[in-house]
TrEMBL record:
Keywords: Membrane, Transmembrane, Transmembrane helix. It comes from Pseudomonas soli. The chain crosses the membrane at residues 39-60, 72-93, 99-118, 130-151, 163-182, 203-226, 232-250, 262-281, 287-311, 323-341, 353-376. This is MFS transporter. InterPro entries: MFS (IPR011701), MFS_dom (IPR020846), MFS_trans_sf (IPR036259), Sugar_transporter_CS (IPR005829). Its main location: membrane.
Length: 393
């Protein structure tokens, strides 16, 4: 039987899995310098994460039913430790791409079972809080890793910051703790291949999260190099923490709003917050960067994420798992392809013009998706619904 502390132990493990994902982010520009590469190569290495996530979303949706919940969490923890070891032993841009691939695979495995496992470990009357625990622990981890590394780098430049060793120690402890957790769900045979599904009316919400996570990906992959031009490299990890984890502050408000209204509000905030963030990065204004990152986080990990996923789950009927996979597929495409394209522009035309072009496309995209959502909501307004799933980065 699940114990009273089991949900907290699982949340601890999920936080350690996602903490490893952006642990190396403040060192991206250093890896690029060591490899003699620029922003485009950095963006490609960064996008190795998506190559790990996509196979799970596309083909391994039933793996948790076949092997159980706990083994996937254990494998995800092990993969996070392997990725951290790779960067400790061989710090380079090529190693970063490989490490990001392992991190994406681990996060995908954890995402495939986190909410279901959390609900099974909770008392019957508390299982509806499972998504809240998962979203909070993963969002905190995604941002905390970069912030910890930035704190370590304040003591001086190094390729082996203490945050890497801390992740290894805590993840090893989490392995032992998760190994002792119960696995109440019985294994069962089911079709392994579950392709993503887009119910009628859901595509606009998928495009909204694509735009939102494109903005987050840009901050994580390219902002450290831009900030270095103004002597602000030490703050890159904190900007990443702000653009991811501060979205937690806005999730309670997003849950109380209708899905379409929450998503529309996020689409309104997103281009405005990006403009502030980009101006701060280009001019070396730290306050603008951090305030813009917090505002963007409210849209990306607050209103658009929760509102969009809630709407997709409502529209999906009995196909919630496949519809969620479709939603996250678009999200991760946004997390990678626009970042690579912007990195190419930055290398060829300079970071300022690259930021302007990205901002223009973001503004047009937000306007088009918002118009489509507004027209759809006028015909059939959506009610708020508590979403389920694991918040990726």
């Amino acid at each position: 039987m699940p114990t009273r502390h089991a949900p907290a132990l699982l949340a601890f493990a999920l936080c350690l899995i996602t903490l490893a994902v952006n642990l190396q982010a403040p060192l991206y520009i250093t890896y690029a310098d060591l490899s003699g590469q620029g922003a485009a190569a950095t963006a490609v290495a960064f996008s190795g994460y998506v190559l790990g996530v996509l196979p799970v979303l596309l083909a391994l949706g039933a793996l948790a039913d076949r092997v159980g919940r706990r083994p996937l969490i254990l494998v995800a923890l092990a993969l996070s430790m392997i990725a951290t070891l790779i960067m400790l032993l061989s710090p380079s841009l090529a190693s970063l791409g490989v490490a990001r691939l392992f991190l994406g695979l681990g996060t995908g495995l954890a995402s495939a079972t986190a909410t279901a496992y959390m609900s099974e470990l909770m008392a019957p009357g508390e299982s509806d809080r499972a998504a809240t625990w998962v979203t909070a622990s993963t969002s905190l981890g995604f941002g905390l890793g970069a912030a910890l590394t930035s704190l370590c780098l304040l003591r001086g430049p190094t390729l082996t910051p203490g945050s890497f060793h801390l992740q290894l120690i805590l993840a090893a402890a989490a392995l032992v703790l998760v190994w002792r957790l119960p696995d109440p769900h019985p294994t069962q045979s089911s079709a392994m291949l579950r392709l993503p599904y887009y119910p009628s009316g859901s595509l606009a919400y998928g495009l909204a999260i694509l735009l939102a996570w494109a903005c987050v990906g840009l901050v994580i992959a390219l902002l450290p190099g831009i900030l270095r031009q103004h002597g602000l490299s030490a703050w890159s990890g904190f900007s990443i923490f702000c653009v991811i984890s501060c979205g937690l502050l806005f999730q309670p408000l997003a849950r109380r709003m209708a899905s379409a209204r929450a998503t529309l509000l996020g689409l309104l905030i997103l281009p405005c917050s990006y403009a502030l963030l980009a101006w701060g990065a280009d001019s070396g204004n730290l306050a603008g960067v951090l305030l813009g990152a917090v505002a963007a986080s409210s849209a990306c990990y607050g209103f658009i994420y929760l509102g969009g996923l809630a709407a997709v789950n409502k529209l999906a009927g009995q196909e919630k798992t496949r519809a969620s996979a479709g939603f996250f597929l678009l999200a991760y495409l946004g997390f990678s392809l626009p970042v690579i394209f912007t990195g190419l522009l930055s290398d060829r035309l300079g970071p300022r013009l690259a930021l302007i072009v990205f901002g223009g496309v973001l503004l047009l995209g937000c306007a088009a998706v918002a118009l489509a959502l507004w027209l759809a909501s006028v015909r059939s307004p959506a009610r708020p619904r508590r979403p389920s799933g694991c918040a990726p980065s």
